[in-house]
UniProtKB/TrEMBL annotation, chains A, B:
InterPro entries: Alpha/beta_knot_MTases, PUA-like_sf, RsmE, RsmE_MTase_dom, RsmE_PUA-like, tRNA_m1G_MTases_N. This is Ribosomal RNA small subunit methyltransferase E. It catalyses: uridine(1498) in 16S rRNA + S-adenosyl-L-methionine = N(3)-methyluridine(1498) in 16S rRNA + S-adenosyl-L-homocysteine + H(+). One of its GO terms (biological process) is methylation. SUPFAM superfamilies: alpha/beta knot, PUA domain-like.
Length: 238, 238
């Protein structure tokens, strides 16, 4: 259950300005491909950071430049451009299974369980964690993903180290996820427990760089919020 | 179970260019307020069609103009600027209850049950319909909405007459809901049954003006799609 990188484990992901039949990259990207020990004929996944991605074949490579030929949209196109993590507070009963199932369909690379001030539990049994990972595996197959998300054992919110951008759904927030989302790096989304995160928790997250975003003016159940937030990402086509 | 108009049944909703401390409206809007038999001192709900709304007090009114003073964000601010309808294919078991519950939290004014080619059922019992309306009522209270959505008895997809824009979630669609959404009129969203709508059904809807929109490149369960699509709307702050 190490972090499964979206797009497969090969790491052969190349960012391009835009997807085009022939894509020419500069010295820096060429060096990157050499470090990956790629040679002409190799297949890579190209992505534009805006949600478009496809397979491409490396046609030429030297220290000065790389030329890629666009291939077909691949199986990996079912994955987000960069890994998408859902952080979710521990919830009672089967709610976490429902969240994990929907989150898997909606493209997360991992689910990080979190202990928050008002979370329904402080810990989770090994059997339940195993079961949540099985739910992710089944949902992954059903939604025809190549990647099975990892459901990671809970850590306390204050000790969670997310990668890239973090968006936290917060009643009263005015920022819109869709205005702020940037796929140049990993993306993490966070929703709280029944009763919400405390003001202090949100303040602390914001001090660490998180952006509080709206999910509309109504009160959502803790198990609805993550699906809604992930839906907003999916509705962008990623 | 008549159509509950979002924002309450009073109909005292006034569109303005933008929310401002003092808003001056022209003859046409003034006439509208007179038709509603409003007098200075009356409270109305002003909205800008972009998702912002608040209470306002009518300060002056004659045939030539109306002056409104902005009040506080109101209870009714929990409602979308125009009625939001979810059309959903009949699903098995308790799935419809789950959809109705989440849809209520996410602000729908009504849920129209639909019989589609691949729907799990052709009809629904009176008891079940009653139960779904009770689910909507409970969820409405829990999410602190002033409006209880109506869950309407199923009609066949071809006989459904929606109001305003209709967006249908369709695998392979490229249009984005968030790019097309326009609150100058009612909005309807449609998701299909397990197995999806048929190509013919989608074609027919498009011929009637519907816009097919993406929910990302993965396969979603029929009960996840409506929550995801409604989440995309809620994440815009409405």
């Amino acid at each position: 259950m190490t972090g499964g990188r979206a797009g497969g484990g090969s790491g052969r992901r190349v960012r391009v300005e835009a997807l085009a039949p022939v894509m020419v990259l500069g010295p820096r990207e060429a060096r990157h491909l050499q470090v990956l020990r790629l040679a002409p004929g190799a297949t890579v996944l190209v992505f534009d950071g805006q949600g478009a991605q496809a397979q491409a074949t490396l046609a030429e490579l030297d220290a000065g430049r790389a030329v890629l030929h666009l291939g077909e949209a691949s199986e990996a196109a079912a994955e987000t451009p960069q890994p998408l993590t859902l952080g979710v507070a521990l919830l009672k009963g089967d709610k976490l299974a429902d969240v994990v199932r929907a989150a898997t369909e909606l493209g997360v690379a991992r689910v990080q369980l979190l202990v928050t001030r008002r979370a329904d539990a402080r810990e989770i049994g090994a059997q339940k964690l195993l079961r949540l990972n099985r739910v992710a595996e089944e949902a992954s197959k059903q939604s025809r993903r190549a990647v099975t998300p990892d459901v990671l054992a809970p850590v306390s919110l204050s000790e969670w180290h997310w990668e890239g951008q973090l968006f936290v759904a917060q009643p009263g927030a005015e920022a819109r996820l869709t205005d702020r989302l940037d796929w140049s790096g990993p993306v993490a989304l966070l929703t709280g427990p029944e009763g919400g995160l405390t003001d202090d928790e949100v303040l602390s997250l914001r001090q660490r760089g998180a952006v509080a975003v709206t999910l509309g003016p109504r009160i959502l159940r803790a198990e609805t919020a993550p699906v809604a937030l992930l839906g907003a990402v999916a509705a962008l086509g990623v």
